[in-house]
């Protein structure tokens, strides 16, 4: 018979074995590798794997159920392609203007702005993947026939520059695709999602170079690095070419009218920033009031992505 002490030690070793030492010391938890719904993907000439996590968001608003999902797409792009992209983006100069999430120097580089390539060379590398993989996938996954890429940006996280990108929604994007560029053994931490207000729902996402991570406007996320450097390529997608041309966010009106609290919260942010026309504090407050406690977040000055 196993003595209680040995049994305890046995349990402890199982716990320790399932989470690495630094994972435990930093309180980091990854998306559960055993819980996604997985399927093989074939999109045009691309083949790979889709893992989809369903996320319970009900804690955002007490008594209101809600869910979102996020997907990791792997093996679709050759690691050598990601390496080529990384080499190309590392040679660019990065902006140090104020970041929209935290107001600190952004260290961003934009190869596409408002649907137009500003970096033709990177455009040549990315265009086939955008047209033949990213858009067909997003259009089909979100039943959004007209979904169109609005912005593409690179984010650089170097130790002397940036360690975090605080928790936020991508308020101006119907869907976001993040392409991992840096091997995950070159840094500790990385991109995380957080479906509820409590940080205990935070889950980090392991992205190998060439893996894609996909989520929608209603999923809060951020980046936290404890060491090393990381580059990521981000695609912000709007629901139609007209939304790209006008820089607007038409998808919120319907979701907000249907009572989606995150849509109302983001719509309030759009009114405050004047993205839906004039800056309209009254409309923003109306959205905030409808969602009760979420308006508190706006009052608290939580930033909008
Ligand atoms: O760097 C990343 O992986 C994500 C950055 C992000 O969330 C953003 O730019 O909105
Ligand atoms: Fe984001």
Global geometry:
globular
- Poorly predicted sequence stretches spanning 5 or more consecutive residues: 1-19, 292-305
Q: Count all strands and give the number.
A: 13
CATH superfamily of the largest domain: q2cbj1_9rhob like domain
User: Which oligomeric form is depicted?
Assistant: single chain
Structural class: alpha+beta
* Radius of gyration, whole Å: 20 Å
What percentage of residues falls in helices of 4 or more residues?
Answer: 25-40%
Which ligands are bound?
A: 2-oxoglutaric acid, fe (ii) ion
Number of helices: 9
Protein name: Fe2OG dioxygenase domain-containing protein
Organism: Durusdinium trenchii
InterPro entries: Oxoglu/Fe-dep_dioxygenase_dom (IPR005123)
Family: Belongs to the iron/ascorbate-dependent oxidoreductase family.
Write structural notes for this entry.
Keywords: Iron, Metal-binding, Oxidoreductase. Residues 148-239 form the Fe2OG dioxygenase domain. InterPro entries: Oxoglu/Fe-dep_dioxygenase_dom. This protein is 32% helix and 28% strand. The protein contains nine helices and 13 strands. Mean pLDDT is 83; it is low at 1-19 and 292-305. The chain is an alpha+beta fold and 305 residues long. 35% of the residues are buried. It has two domains: 25-242, Jelly Rolls; 248-299, no CATH class. The chain has helices spanning 4-18, 21-26, 79-90, 120-141, 241-246, 251-257, 261-273, 281-290, 293-299; strands at residues 37-43, 46-56, 67-74, 108-113, 116-117, 148-157, 164-168, 175-180, 187-193, 203-204, 212-216, 221-228, 230-238. The longest helix is centred in the middle third of the chain and has 22 residues, at 120-141. Bound molecules: 2-oxoglutaric acid and fe (ii) ion. The site of fe (ii) ion has 4 residues, from loops.
């Amino acid at each position: 018979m196993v003595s209680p002490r040995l049994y305890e030690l046995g349990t402890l070793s199982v716990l320790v074995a399932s989470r690495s030492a630094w994972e435990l010391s930093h309180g980091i938890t990854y998306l559960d590798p055993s819980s996604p719904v997985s399927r093989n993907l074939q999109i045009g000439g691309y083949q790979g794997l889709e893992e989809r996590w369903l996320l319970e968001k009900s804690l955002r608003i007490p008594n209101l159920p809600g869910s979102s999902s996020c997907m990791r797409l792997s093996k679709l792009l050759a690691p050598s392609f990601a390496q080529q992209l990384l080499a190309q983006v590392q040679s660019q100069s990065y902006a140090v203007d104020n970041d929209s999430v935290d107001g600190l120097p952004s260290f961003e580089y934009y190869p596409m702005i408002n649907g137009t390539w500003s970096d033709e060379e990177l455009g040549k590398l990315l265009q086939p993947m955008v047209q033949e993989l990213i858009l067909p996938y997003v259009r089909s996954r979100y039943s959004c026939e007209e979904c169109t890429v609005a912005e593409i940006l690179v984010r650089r996280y170097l130790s002397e520059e940036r360690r975090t990108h605080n928790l936020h929604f991508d308020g101006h994007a119907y869907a976001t695709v993040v392409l991992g560029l840096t091997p995950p053994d070159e840094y500790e931490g990385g991109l995380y999602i957080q479906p509820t207000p409590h940080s205990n729902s935070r889950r980090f996402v392991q992205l190998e170079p060439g893996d894609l991570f996909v989520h929608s406007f209603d999923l809060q996320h951020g980046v936290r690095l404890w060491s090393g450097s990381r580059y990521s390529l981000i695609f912000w997608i709007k629901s139609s070419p007209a939304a790209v041309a006008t820089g607007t966010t038409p998808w919120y009106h319907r979701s907000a009218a249907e009572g989606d609290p995150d849509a109302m919260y983001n719509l309030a942010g759009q009114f405050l920033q004047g993205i839906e026309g004039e800056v309209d504090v009254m409309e923003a407050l109306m959205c905030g009031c409808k969602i009760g406690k979420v308006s508190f977040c706006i009052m608290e000055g939580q930033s909008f992505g």
